[in-house]
Amino acid sequence: MKRFERILIQLALVHFILLVAAQFLLEIPSFKLYTNKSIYYEGVIRTTNSPLWKP
């Protein structure tokens, strides 16, 4: 059981490190430009240039 708990703790630490790294990367403006384009492809944000946008 101790081995299983140790693996869970290690996984939680790795998950936390990856979470902090992802949050740090999202604060970099040049990186944010590439990641935010996916929002437009998914249709979450509609711009005025979109043919589906109706005021």
TrEMBL record:
<dbReference type="InterPro" id="IPR035281">
    <property type="entry name" value="DUF5359"/>
</dbReference>
<protein>
    <submittedName>
        <fullName>DUF5359 family protein</fullName>
    </submittedName>
</protein>
<dbReference type="Pfam" id="PF17313">
    <property type="entry name" value="DUF5359"/>
</dbReference>
